[in-house]
Amino acid sequence: MDNAGKEREAVQLMAEAEKRVKASHSFLRGLFGGNTRIEEACEMYTRAANMFKMAKNWSAAGNAFCQAAKLHMQLQSKHDSATSFVDAGNAYKKADPQEAINCLNAAIDIYTDMGRFTIAAKHHITIAEIYETELVDIEKAIAHYEQSADYYKGEESNSSANKCLLKVAAYAAQLEQYQKAIEVYEQVGASTMDNPLLKYSAKDYFFKAALCHFIVDELNAKLALEKYEEMFPAFTDSRECKLLKKLLEAHEEQNSEAYTEAVKEFDSISRLDQWLTTMLLRIKKSIPGDGDGDGDLK
Hints:
Elements (H helix, E strand, L loop, with lengths): L2 H23 L1 H5 L2 H21 L3 H17 L3 H15 L4 H17 L3 H17 L4 H17 L3 H17 L3 H15 L6 H18 L1 H14 L7 H14 L3 H14 L4 H11 L14
Helix pairs in contact: 1-3, 3-4, 4-5, 5-6, 6-7, 7-8, 8-9, 9-10, 10-11, 11-12, 11-13, 11-15, 12-13, 13-14
């Protein structure tokens, strides 16, 4: 069957389902088998949704799944309702990001009501990703990553919580909310430094926290660096810690060449990602006499 055929069949199923729903409302039918009709309508909406999916009509698929979700709710079957809202969200994601978020939020409400916090956390991440990529609203993405981290922590899924928190910190720093970024990096660093499998990453988090301090205030960065070395002695021997010391020295001497040289040397061994490059440039701009202030690092 071609796509047009699938769509036609789906439209017929939708019409059939609506008839069943209307019939279930009439007084006599309500007394005799109203629920059976609702169940049949539910099944038809779901079949229609899958036909629309095959025809790649994502909005229509989302709408059909939504109808099924509402009927499942009427039948008191929360789990099926939540699943249908998630299916609706996934379909809408391809056509209407805002509608996808609405459906996923509806699913989250049901899951939290049922005490299913881990699955709710997962859907908060999906919403955060839609805000990141489709709607480009970073503030909202941060809020959903935070909510997700909260739910994961409550369920003792600390490594999943930390993954969300690191997203929060990276975005907060980009938005110049340095205090928030510092708190998160320090918290994640402290929670990973005693774990033999994760402690290698801890130096990275302390490094990022120190850079955020550095953008705000040089002295803060120095004090923070001392604190991190004390908390986590392995940090002292890391290339990150050595780079920070060179940068602090170059900054103090207002020597932007030495600053750039130290960054280049570090970059030649481990490539700097976009986030680190941005932060290191922000610090460099605060060195007096750095040309027109939009210095390069390479």
